[in-house]
Amino acid sequence: MNKKAVVIGGGFGGLSTAALLARDGWIVTLVEKNAQLGGRARYWKKDGFTFDMGPSWYLMPEVFEHYFTHFEKKREDYYDLSPIDPYYKVYFEGGETAELTPRFEENQKLFESFEKGGGKALKAYMEQSSYKYDVAMGDFLYREYKHIGQFFNRRLMTEGLRLGVLGKLDTFVSNYVKDYRAKQILEYAMVFLGTDPAQAPAIYSIMTHVDLNLGVFFPQKGMAGVAEGFASLCRELGVELITDAEVLKVLTEGNRAVGVETNKGTFKADVVVSSADYHHSDTNLLETKHRTYSDSYWEKRVVAPSMFIAYLGIGRELKGFEHHNLYFAKDWDKHFDAIFKNPSWPKDPCFYLSCISKTDPSSAPAGCENVFLLVPVAPGLVDTEEQRNAYFEHVADHVQKVTGEDIRKDLLVKRLYSHRDFISDYHAYKGTALGLSHTLMQTAVFRPRHQNKTIKNLYYTGQYTHPGIGVPMVLIASELIAKEIQETYGS
Questions:
Q1: According to the CATH classification, is domain 40-102+215-221+305-433 in 3.20.20.70?
Q2: What is the mean pLDDT of the segment spanning 40-63?
Q3: Amine oxidase domain: which residues (predicted)?
């Protein structure tokens, strides 16, 4: 075919798209601004500790397995997976804890302990969650949407109420359980989709099926190890992977993209795909006349949270933690309000704490613990060195109060990461860690387009586009993009 494609960005979106285009016969060059491939899924190593910098949950394994079938490969050709048991531990306000496990009957007993009939309610909730998931995978996620009629199709119109597209998740969950602990377990995943459960469409109850039925896994060498596997696939297919190459401009002639200009030179192309931050690509890499969206459009978007992250190497074992640990304040609405309504640093924050060394001892020196502490925070906050250091002390006190562990004791390695790092490393809009929230008006056809409005051979993939946030969703987006490119420009 001898047609050239340039892919901007070496995260999961860029790597997965590049491999698919190379499979289809394109001569592919991928350019990544950072020194390491993987995008947010990179490593940071210091003093014997190896930290996953970004994604830390491996969910929806069948999406990864499906992706590799496009190359007549298997996922295990590139990385191994281990199941995690328990899936995660939850700390509730007041000192109570609970563990969610691969054994559904144990989870039912847990819900029954929250409220009479809770076990039966969980079973019923899981049945509808599984049904919605199957419908979403079969009819919605692996489908491109270019106009509203494709979204409001016959299946949606006939089963829309059952699917919960128009209702709100928090209200929907309340139809099954009343206890706040049960509700929080069924709703917490919305944080990782960048959305307040009170505003998330009820169709996202599918995440409980993802969580408790499909299971939680740990990939060998972490999520950055998964990115390395995708990079290996690209190399096998002949993709040229260029790092430390920041794209300065998408080059155009008339209404066609003809390549990209980088700090390492110019790369010509017949098709360009950007997996970089969508706002950055649309507003900074193109002439104004070629922008798909205006400044006012972006200002009106509901931007997903940024993250306050602490990478901590601790010189002792932490006995009370599991691999994944979560804390939910009883009145967690205050935390969501501090993200979406009154942007500020949360005073009583919910948090996620990972001890990857519980599953992967090689991630820390012997007798030590590798800790990843995350607090979702509003995008666009002032993030000075003084602010983040003060907030770390506040959160560390909070963690000690909730769990009994002082994560500052025997601290060997510490790195704080937040808004300005997301901006400098990824050009992230307002420092978001995730992209755009999953509200109804930012779902499917209402998310940013996969194709530029005027430059038809310029495409976008990644977490901003349909189907949305999360590594599995990004892989699906790449499949949609590659299919359309091949149908339009392939031989």
A1: no
A2: 96
A3: 13-485
